[in-house]
Structures are given as structure tokens and as C-alpha cells.
Amino acid sequence: MTDAPDPYPRAGTTADFAANLAAVRTRIAAAAEGAGRDPGGVRLLPVSKTVPEDRLRLAIAAGMTELGENKVQEAQRKAGNLADLGVRWSVIGHLQSNKAKDVAAFAHEFQALDRLKVADGLDRRLQADGRGLDVFIQVNTSAEDTKFGLPPGDVLPFLAALRAHHALRVRGLMTLAVFSGDTERVRACFRLLRDLRDRARATDPDLVGEGHLSMGMSGDFELAIAEGATVVRVGQAIFGARPTPDALYWPGLFPESPDPHSSEMSESV
Ligand SMILES: *Cc1c(COP(=O)(O)O)cnc(C)c1O
């Protein structure tokens, strides 16, 4: 027996990226078909955090037209350095309200909206610039494990309050499932997000836009698709294993990580 293979693929050349994308797309299609769904109803958002611009050029040459980034500063830098390539940028991580103007300046989408203060800041800046922004409301579906995202009970009133923000186009809901090998706990997070979407629609069909569900990452996207995901955010299965610990991106998931609200870390790296 040899050692167990690295679960994440090699990702150094355009051919590697093309192969990784194709493999993920095949898995998405199989998961959708297994759930009786149309594979075309699942959007793949490649997540490129920590991947430097030179490798991103090779990845984009393999056919990526949009990229997700967790941190605003890193995303804005890449958007500037790769402006010639016409990529659409999606910010998928927590945002401090003083960074709202930066997101408004370059992003096409913001998936981690969970505070009215941030919505106010985004809307004000977007209106001034005559732009709009697609947004997803981040929901904390794994209450015991993470600090980011709205508590489920706050989602409907939050959606109602967003109606006054005319530059924000609500597209749906987003979540990170609990990090657990227990698939039933993971599945419960995805189901909760879907139930919230369905409840919002039943309350008012306009409340939650198209009702997209952004859920599922490299480790759990097949399960998310089985539970109704229409957007999956996939990093390592395309770009290879990340050199940095996940605690840098999801403070609060790990007891040893600093409080994101009292440090600079959520905007640095
Ligand atoms: C990094 C990240 C992902 C992708 O995680 P992978 O394990 O690399 O697939 C998805 N969503 C968010 C919010 C992320 O920060």
C-alpha cells in the first residue's frame, strides 16, 4: 500500500486547471442528476483565495470567467492586477463596514451580507456611482460553530429591510455548513438554508430574488447539490490544497482563532 493520495489535485498549469475544472463539473453533473436536477441549474464559482496572480492567469486561460475571494483587500488587488482579463469578482467573506466602499468599487457580487450597516454603506456608495450589486444574505446555519451570518430567525426581517436598498439586488441566501465528518449535521445546515428560502418565498415571492442557494465547497458540494444548492463555491478541488489554515478565513470556527471583530486579521494577509 502507498500513502493515501492528497485529496486535492495538482494545479500548476493551464492544463491542470482545465482538468480540475472538468473533474469538478463532472461531479456537479453527477450530483445534480442523482438528485433529479438539471446540472445547468448549478453555478460553479471557483474560489481563488491565496492563489497569486501569475497562477490565476493560467487558471483563467483554462476558461474561468468569475472568481470568488474571501478577503476584500486581496480581491481588490487581484481585480486591479488582472483587469485586462475581464473576470467577474465575487466577494464571499465577511466585510467590515468601513470596507463597503471598496467592494462597491470593483465587485460584481457580494455573498456575505449579514448586517444592515454594511448594506447601508454599500447602497450609499453604489447609488453615488450609479451601479448595482448582486448580493446574497449569509446565514449562520450551524449556530454553535461560527460567528458570521445572520441567525436564521433574523433572515426574513432582514430581507424586508433590504427592500429600501435599491442598488442591492438580492439573489438568494448563502451559508457555510458545519465543518464535520457527520454528513447528517452538514445536511441539516443545507436544509435549513433551503427552508428559509422557501419560507421567504411563501411570505413574499419578491423577498429573496431568484432564491438562489449558495452552499457547498470542495468537501461538501455534492451533498449541497442534493439539498438544492444552485451555487457551489469550490476552491481547493480546482486550485489545489491551500497553504494557509482555514482558521484565517473562518474565525470563530476554531477555538484558538482570534475574535474577528476585534482584530485586523479579517482584512489582512
Ligand atoms: C474558501 C472558501 C470556499 C471554498 O473552500 P474550499 O475548501 O477551498 O473549496 C467557499 N466559501 C467560502 C466563504 C470560502 O471562504
Structural overview:
Helices cover 37% and strands 14% of the residues. With 269 residues, it is α/β, with parallel strands linked by helices. A 6-stranded parallel sheet has the order 2-3-4-5-6-7. Strand 4, helix 5 (116-129) and strand 5 (133-138) form a beta-alpha-beta unit. Helix 1 packs across helix 2 (53-61) and helix 4 (100-106) packs across helix 5. It is globular and about 45 Å long. Pyridoxal-5'-phosphate is lined by residues 47, 49, 70, 92-93, 176, 217-219, 233-237, 249.
The CATH architecture name reads Alpha-Beta Barrel
Tally the structural domains. Answer: 1
Can you tell me the CATH topology?
TIM Barrel
**If you compute it from the alpha carbons, what radius of gyration comes out, rounded to the nearest whole angstrom?**
18 Å
Helical proportion?
A: 25-40%
N- to C-terminal separation?
Answer: 39 Å
Q: What would you call the structural class?
A: alpha/beta
